[in-house]
Amino acid sequence: MKAIKSILILLLTFFSTQAFCQYTDVINSNRPGVSRSAFSVGTNVAQFEVGPYIIEEERTPAIGYKVSGFGADFAVRYGLLWEQLELNFEGNYQSDNKSYFSNLDNKDRRSNFKYLTLGAKYLVYDPYKNAEDDKPNLYSWKANHTFKWKSLIPAIAVYAGANFDTPDNPYTADAIEALALK
After folding, report:
1. Which long-range contacts (CB under 8 A, 24 or more apart) does 137-145 make?
2. Domain locations in the chain?
3. Cα separation of 182 and 167, whole Å?
4. Would you list the DSSP string of the chain?
5. What is the annotated signal peptide range for this record (predicted)?
């Protein structure tokens, strides 16, 4: 028993790594494939996001089929140079079985990336950057609790990226090129 404890402590000592964390009041996260925020993650900060899903789909038009499998939306975000600039790498991987309803037993096993995107995002306008008006009014409860129309102004970011496609991808049309700007 002592040998196992000694080996375990020795392994943990040699294979441990040093990690650094970020503390912020608000974590700027996106749901990969679903939402996108105008704000970046911060300078020299890497953020990994994953959203797994299960697919069960059945279609019965003229040529009916059934699809069952799993997939994952993922994103890697990295804050570069300034607080407003972010590089991101996003994608969607899916693996499934597609069965056709016909006289012939026809089954396809498919797996590939539905999309892979490498891009950059820059925050152009931040409505909260110079928010001196949001200080509480110590003399008026009503002034602190009225609706602030300025809160409706959105943050604005600019995005540029490129979609990469692999050859013989079953999830994209044949006419799609290997590289497309987004």
Report:
1. none
2. 2-181
3. 19
4. -HHHHHHHHHHHHHH---------SS-----TTT---SS---TT-EEEEEEEEEEEEEE-SSSEEEEEEEEEEEEEEEE-SSTTEEEEEEEEEEEEEEEEESSS-EEEEEEEEEEEEEEEEEEEE-TTTT-GGGS--TT-HHHHHS--GGGGSPPEEEEEEEEE--TT-TTS-TT--SEEE-
5. 1-21
Backbone CA torsion sign across 10, 12, 18, 23: negative
pLDDT at 79 over 80: yes
For 53-68, write each residue's pLDDT tens digit.
888 888 777 777 888 8
Given the structure tokens 């925020």, which residue do they identify?
A: 37
- Per-residue pLDDT reduced to its tens digit, 138-159: 888 888 888 888 778 888 999 9
